[in-house]
Amino acid sequence: MNWHVTLYNVLTTINNVLLILIGIPFILQFLYMFLFWLPKKVFKKSEEKKRICVIIPAHNEEDVIGNTVRRLFERQNYPAELFDVYVVAHNCTDRTAELAREAGARVLVLDDPDPARHIVSYALKFGYEQILATGIAYDFSIRLDADNHVNDDFFSLMNDAFCSGVKIARPYESALNMTQNQFTRACGLYYTFDSRFSSRVRERLHMDAHVNGPGSMTDMEIIRRIGGYDTASIVEDTEFNIKRMCEGVRCHFVEDAVVYEDLPSSFRDTMNRNKRIAAGNARLLCRFTPRMCWNAVKQFRFSFIEQILTYSFIFICLLLCTWIPGYYIYAASYLAAQGAFTSAQAAALGISGPGLWQLLTIVGICLGALFLVAGILQGTLLILLDYRKMGAERRRELLSGAFLFPAFTVVYCVTMAIGLFCKPKWVKINRNTGTAR
């Protein structure tokens, strides 16, 4: 057998193994979508009202911080005397501290000259230390970003979950600017998937939620036990979640509590965001995978494996951008050069696998199915189910996003792959005014 035939057969075997490894996380995501009919978890209404501290890290956020703080005091259906808002003004050179204070927040000023500490984890660490130092017996905390809005019953819903025994929880994540342009429509659908499909199914199947974004709720007893905030990575929320899971804490999803955040409205902002997420989570996954695998066995808890599979999409993005297109371009070119257009012709030459025509047909069917099922169908289903939570009055306002959803998935995959080779750092995203909630 010629060396080039052997090389082709070896590369084909490697490709088939990689396809199986890639397929496992994809099957999990398809499962989440097809179980959309599962009813959401609703926590029992509690008459008891706990004391809450809200912590908001902010760096030069004068454009949005005043409105964010003011809305909490004006619109939350929760006793005002039972919650305090703390804004950590982190190395601010604008009026962030002044405007937050005017809106009613307790401002904690952190001026740290060390560039290595100019990330949100250090602001949170400082903020929690100062909150603990007050001696006020808060029951749980809610972490928000400077641009976040929450629905009017947010505190009450988190209080219900806390009184039901929940120690850590995430909300439903939606967008302030979902209808801003075609890019945000498609982008918003991508990020909403994890709330409406993945998080609901995880909660109903008794798996842990991925508490890795704004609006997260944490039992203050946990903060007191660990002495504040014990993470310092660029993806501190994910690290905090994993550490607590390893300690045996269960993480939940409170679906009716909705946080609205400012989505990237351009390719550039998506690139900046995904570079940080990819670089940070890849390093975190390499660091914690052995510990998570051990705890999956020790605690007999599939949630650890599920999180490993989900975060492995970062590395899958790299394969999808490099190996997969590279292999199939090579395979098609090689088969054509050898005249192996059919399976019989390929077998006669000692080549394993299909001939050129069969290979192109298989690739075409797979790409079509991914774009239709994982793209347009998924986006359309999300719009039909949750368009109001996405900030639209009518479904047709978002339908164009469903058709652009596959294209954004490609953008997401490319930016995540690039992010793997970037040094993780926090880059300020351009703020959009969004729509008032």
Describe the 3D structure:
55% of the residues lie in helices and 11% in strands. The protein has 437 residues and is of the alpha/beta class. It has a single domain (1-429), classed as Spore Coat Polysaccharide Biosynthesis Protein SpsA, Chain A (Alpha-Beta Complex). Strands 3-2-1-4-7-6-8-5 form an eight-stranded mixed beta sheet, sandwiched between helices. Helix 3 links the parallel strand 2 and strand 3 (106-110). Helix 2 (65-75) runs parallel beside helix 3 (96-102), helix 6 (182-204) crosses helix 15 (399-419) and helix 11 runs parallel beside helix 12.
- Write out the CATH superfamily name: Spore Coat Polysaccharide Biosynthesis Protein SpsA, Chain A
Q: Would you tell me the structural class of the helices and strands?
A: alpha/beta
CATH architecture: Alpha-Beta Complex
Rounded to the nearest angstrom, the radius of gyration is: 24 Å
Q: How many helical stretches? A: 15
Order of helices and strands: HEHEHEHEEHEHEHHEHHHHHHH
Query: Could you tell me how far the N terminus lies from the C terminus, measured between alpha carbons in angstroms?
Result: 68 Å
The number of distinct β-strands equals: 8
Which CATH class? Alpha Beta
Instruction: Give the biggest beta sheet.
Output: 8 strands, mixed
Low-pLDDT regions: none
Percentage of residues in strands: 5-15%
- On the 0 to 100 scale, the average pLDDT is 89
Spatial ordering of strands, largest sheet: 3-2-1-4-7-6-8-5
Q: How many domains, as an integer? A: 1
CATH topology: Spore Coat Polysaccharide Biosynthesis Protein SpsA, Chain A
| Helical fraction | 40-55%
